[in-house]
Amino acid sequence: MPEILSSPLTLGLAAVLGYLLGSVPFGIVITRALGLGDLRQIGSGNIGATNVLRTGHKGAALATLVLDAAKGAIAVLIARAVVGEDAAQVAGGMAFLGHLFPVWLGFKGGKGVATFLGTLLALAWPVGLAACATWLVGAAITRISSAAALIAAAFSGLWCFVFDRGDVLILTFVLTVLVYIRHWANLKRIKAGTEPKIGQKKAG
């Protein structure tokens, strides 16, 4: 963890900023704007890019992926610029929680993979790039988005050591645990061999 230099009030404001940014459900906003229906009634019902892809609109899925990653990164960058590194980690962590538990959707959100990666990219870009590359390799091998996400999350702590970024290790570990908790049902389906492949339209 970075040295805590900011006041509790300042860190609290960074937390609120991060949470509000993270809670914007871009997947729902984009699919509704394009007339693709209510994302929560499509596929798995998840609000993330993988489920948006099940609508058959690749552009919408890409936009959701980029924006979900960006909201974590932007929260970190704003907090870092205005306050410092301690606030940046608070804002990034809260952006992730905002995606998982958005106030606008009754605290029923997504699984946080894109926001997780975007947050890592802004906090420690070598770690973030390595995690993104790990996701790509995992996706290429398994053809399963959730499996790739779990592999990338599992390796993220290792990348913190490789790139000597122990200052982000605790937050990375906490976010990794949350990623696994949110993917518990996916883990069961992966073990059962019933988890959908990337782009498959049925629920998963």
Number of alpha- plus pi-helical segments = 10
> What integer is the average pLDDT?
92
Radius of gyration: 16 Å
Query: Distance N terminus to C terminus?
Result: 36 Å
User: Based on CA inertia axes, which overall geometry fits?
Assistant: globular
Alpha-beta classification: mainly alpha
Number of strands: 0
* Tally of separate domains: 1
Strand percentage lies at: under 5%
Please mark out the parts with pLDDT under 50 across 5 or more consecutive residues, or reply none: none
Q: Give the helix proportion (percent range).
A: 55-70%
Secondary-structure element sequence? HHHHHHHHHH
- How would a crystallographer describe the biggest sheet? none
Question: What does the model show?
Answer:
- The chain has about 200 residues and is mainly α.
- It has one domain.
- It is built from ten helices and no strands.
- Helix 4 (about 60-80) runs antiparallel to helix 5 (about 85-100), helix 6 (about 115-125) runs antiparallel to helix 7 (about 125-140) and helix 8 runs antiparallel to helix 9 (about 170-180).
- It is globular.
- The protein starts with 7 loop residues before the first helix and ends in a 12-residue tail after the last helix.
- The relative contact order is 0.13.
- The mean pLDDT is about 90.
Q: What are its keywords?
A:
204 residues; mainly alpha; globular
Compose a concise summary of this entry.
This protein is an all-alpha fold and 204 residues long.
